[in-house]
Amino acid sequence: MSQDQWTAVDHYISDLFIPPDAALEAALTRSAAAGLPSINVAPNQGKLLHMLARLIGARAILEIGTLGAYSTIWLARALPTDGFLITLEAKPEHAKIAQENLRQAGLTSQVEVRLGPAIETLPQIAAENKGPFDLVFIDADKQGTPEYFRWALDLSRKGSLIIVDNVVRGGKVIDATSTDPNVQGIQRFHQWVAAEPRVSATALQTVGSKGYDGLTFIEVIN
C-alpha cells in the first residue's frame, strides 16, 4: 500500500464518521496560515482521543504539546461542564495560535494554555496540586518522552489513561543501533513502561494521512 492509499482511506473514514466542523477546520486553516508544521493528529485520531476521554469519564486532562490546539479541542469537548484541561506549549508563536483557536471554539473557560518548556511547567503543575489527571496525552518532543512520562505517572491516579503519540517513528523504533534522539527517546520510554509495575500498556501501529507511526496506551493500575 502507498501513502496515497493510506490518505484516501483516512478521508473515507473521516467522511463517514466525522461531520464537518467549522471550529476544527478553522483551527487547521489558521495554524497552516501561521506556518505551524502539519504534525497535528489526523481527524480520525482526534475523534479517538475524544471518545476515549468520554469513555473514561475524564474531568481533568493534561496535554503535553499543544501546537495549534487541534487535539486540544477534541479532548476539551469531551469534558463535562465542570471539567478542565491544561495544555503545555514551549513555543510562544504556537501558544498564540492555540489561544485563538480555542477562543474561536468557545473553550477558553475550560482550557489553560501553559507557556514554557514542559520540563519546567510540569513541576509547577505538581506544586500547584492541579492533579490527579484522568487522562494525559503526550505529543511533544520525543527525546523528552521518558521525562514527560515520569511526570504523567506522578500526576495520575489509579485508573488514569496516558496516551503517547508518534511512537513507531516509521518503523525506526525497532532499530537498536539508531542514533536518532527521537527514536532513542521513544525506545527509553517503552523500556521504562514495560518494566513499570504501576501500569499496564500496549501500543498500536497506525497508517494514514500522517504516514506510518503509532500510539502507546497506558493504564495506571496501581
UniProtKB/TrEMBL annotation:
Highest taxon of the lineage: Bacteria
Gene Ontology biological-process entries: methylation
Organism of origin: Beijerinckia indica subsp. indica (strain ATCC 9039 / DSM 1715 / NCIMB 8712)
GO MF: O-methyltransferase activity; S-adenosylmethionine-dependent methyltransferase activity
Cited Gene3D superfamilies: Vaccinia Virus protein VP39 (3.40.50.150)
Stated name of the protein: O-methyltransferase family 3
Protein keywords: Methyltransferase, S-adenosyl-L-methionine, Transferase
